[in-house]
Amino acid sequence: MDIRAQVSMVFHLDKCIGCHTCSVACKNVWTDRRGAEYMWWNNVETKPGTGYPTKWEDQEIYKGGWEKKGDSIALKGAGKLKGLKNIFHNPNMPTLEDYYHPWAYKYSDLFTAPEGNDQPIGRAISLITGEPIDIKSGPNWDDDLGGSPDYARKDVNFSNLSAAEQESMFQLEQMTLQYLPRICNHCLNPACVASCPSGALYKRGEDGVVLINQERCRAWRMCVTACPYKKTYYNWHTGKSEKCILCYPRLESGQAPACMHSCVGRIRYLGVMLYDADRIEQVASSSDKDLVHNHLNIYVDPNDPQVIAAARRCGIHDSTIEAAQKSPVYKFVKEWNIALPLHPEYRTLPNLFYVPPMLPAMAQMDENGNYETKSKDLFPKVDQNRVPLKYLASLFSNGDTEAITTVYEKLLSVKYHRRNETVGDLSPDEVKDLMANAKVDKDTANAIFRLTSLATFEERFVIPPAHREESIEMLEATADAKGETGFGFKERPARGM
Predict the structure, then answer these.
(1) Which of 55, 255, 372, 413 is 20 to 30 Å from 476 at the Cα level?
(2) Looking at the domain assignment, is residue 7 inside a domain?
(3) 306 and 449, same structural domain?
(4) C-beta separation of 417 from 445 below 8 A
(5) ω into 102 cis (within 30 of 0)
(6) Using one digit for the tens of pLDDT, what is the confidence trace for 62-81?
(7) 43: which residues sit within 8 A by CB, 6+ positions away?
(8) Is it the case that residue 481 has pLDDT exceeding 70?
(9) Is 125 among the domain residues?
(10) 401-422 and 428-438 helices, crossing angle to 10°
(11) Edge-to-edge strand order for the sheet containing 352-355?
């Protein structure tokens, strides 16, 4: 086993209130500069909707991710031959209009406008050209126009739903929306890394964070095409590609990333998971039916003595192993099996997992136009949710509705258990049967409830020590052995350099 450590995340969608505090925190820290005006390394989308950039999930347009080729996989829209063909014109590259044209307002006009009968306004000014523009879209345009024919009804995930199932989501009593916050997934099999002709993208060995070496980047922009989540961006001012760095300077000092630290709904969890790197190609090449199952099984038990011994042989520090044993992400993904990856069919093996939202329909209109309770139960059953299971399966399980049902049954059993514990107005036998069917015992239900609702900051973010001092010592030891400096120099540079 080639055991490696990977910093992973869970977003609990039942708790997201769509406030965009995470997006603003990231914007203020990382992309508040020239050339990055249109970049949102963290964005919050409204589903159903087309997202940012528009229709990013439609890989027939953008050709992102991997596709299965026989027993192996290949990049869908990048690679040596495809990259050479598109070197001067890439038809699968998102344009600025696919994101949005960034703007600000000319507030000075409010104070310098001549006296008149009309109220002066601050015109929208392009942050790129400086010229007045008409605003046509924004990074979360779907939030304001949700349900419209131009946005919600063009959601790519509707492709597997019948016309009746699609229309049911827009009936007044069934109408629904959910928020989908997104950042870079820091994948185990990142298409962006594989596509870069200059080798500028890489995964950090100590924590799996995917980064771009700005010195090596030559603006080929193949990474923009290859990333199916469209979380790599081109900075038109510097001529370099950029992406979410998971706030690794904060991680190295024991702090949570800015988007997670600022999250109002406390939906975000971060921790370390151990995985077997020897299985990456095999898992990424799995059949559609086994893809999600194999993806989740690549993560190994950090409490297993054999795994611990293999991790130590691979150079993983004991403090990292201990952090993996306390990881909230491991609990959600592996112990409780209630968090799933976003669009696993892209075969990048993402390390950001989502707990699907529960959106029960509480009432419906009968043939006489009267509203009646849809369910006689306190909590409606799984199949009575406003969102069809097929829609959620398209997002999180490669179309497998049984995987969504399993998650929902566990979450529903926790609701019933806690209601019975605190209020006691439910049938004990009904609760017992429901929990047995979902394979959830009382201790597990209480643990899920605590980590979801009452967790402290330290429980939500289990960040291992960075041990950068050991990395420096390793570089120095290697350099002394080779007569080099550790950075490739044959002679040590002068002290002033």
Answers:
(1) 255
(2) yes
(3) no
(4) yes
(5) no
(6) 999 999 988 899 999 877 77
(7) 23, 52, 139, 140, 181, 182
(8) no
(9) no
(10) 150
(11) 268-276, 3-12, 352-355, 340-341
Q: Which pair of structure tokens corresponds to residue 363?
A: 């009432």
Is residue 393 within 8 Å of residue 403, measured between CB atoms? yes
Secondary structure class of 393 (helix, strand, coil):
helix
State the pLDDT at residue 362.
Answer: 63
Number of compact structural domains in the chain: 2
Instruction: Say yes or no: 79 and 220 in one domain.
Output: yes
Rounded Cα distance, 188 and 284, in Å: 9
For 115-144, write each residue's pLDDT tens digit.
Answer: 888 888 889 999 999 999 999 888 888 776
Contact 294, 283 (CB under 8 A): yes
- How deeply is 11 buried, as exposed, middle or buried, from its count of CB atoms within 10 A (0-12, 13-18, 19+)? buried
Boundaries of domain holding 70:
1-100+134-357
**b vs e for 152-189, b when ≥16 Cβ sit within 10 Å of the residue's Cβ?**
bbbbbbbeebeeeebebbeeeebebbbbbbbbbbbbbb
CATH of the domain at 139: 3.30.70.20
Residue 447 shares a structural domain with residue 351 = no
Residue with tokens 């006689």: 376
CA torsion sign for 23, 26, 29, 32 is: negative
301, 326, 357: which is the final residue of a domain?
A: 357
Q: What is the pTM of this model?
A: 0.90
**332, 339 in Cβ contact below 8 A?**
yes
Assigned token pair, 137: 């879209």
